[in-house]
Design a protein that fits this description.
It is rod-shaped, with a radius of gyration of 40 Å. A two-stranded antiparallel ribbon has the order 1-2. It has helices spanning 2-5, 28-37, 42-71, 77-105, 109-134, 139-143, 163-170, 173-189, 192-262, and strands at 147-149, 156-158. It is an all-alpha fold and 263 residues long. The longest helix is centred in the last third of the chain and has 71 residues, at 192-262. The chain is built from 9 helices and 2 strands. Residues 1-12 have low confidence and may be disordered.
Length: 263
Amino acid sequence: MGKMLAINASMSRMDIGECPKIHDNALRADFEKAQQKFDHYYDVDATEHLQAFISDCDRRTEAARKRLLETQEELTAEVAEKANAVHELAEKIGQTLAKAEELGAQGLVDESLKLMGEIEDLRKKKSEAEDTYRNSMPVSSYQQQKLRVCDVCSAYLGIHDNDRRLADHFGGKLHLGFIKIREKLSELEKNYEERHEARRKFDEQERYKRDDKRSHRSRSGDRNERHRRSSRSRSRHSRHRSRSRSRSRTHKHDRRDRDRRRH
């Protein structure tokens, strides 16, 4: 989770600040060793944290779509379908170009060249889709930038964006970071209900243990208090008896003194 969330610090367009956690690979071994001895249920916390993060992103995406509907010229269903076809092909080109560049950087030249061949085919299809879209509406309307929102990271994408701009987007840290987060969340959610129930039972058992300890301390405190009270009572009784004996002895001495004086 730590390595994945460290991506957040570079997401300048998502104003969430830097992660407050410590990201040190040297600590991973210590964590894994500790987790074997005692289950901390960190995966449950990670799932809930990522769910909240992705939910917030999806709300941003939906809000951005609503703003576009309010500000952009409304298209007919037929024209909107043609515009979406251009968008989808453009995004496919951007994604494939980013992947080809990544493979090239890794030294996988043949695989990279294969993807570049696929890109050429996609460009031809996109050009045909653009002609169809252009011919379906007035020139003035076509020249206006038609935007859509990226389903993954909620960024805006334009229908006239070039391949370079799209490749920068789909190969950028923001978009790739969201892909990793969504993939990790899908992985964690497979066992979330089971793990969440296990933690609930564990927390319940720990709560019972704490309650028993408090109850034991309370009973022990009551016994100690009763013992202290009994001790104080015995002490007072002892002092009272001691004073009584002292008064009795004094009284006897006084009587003997009076008897002597009479004789």
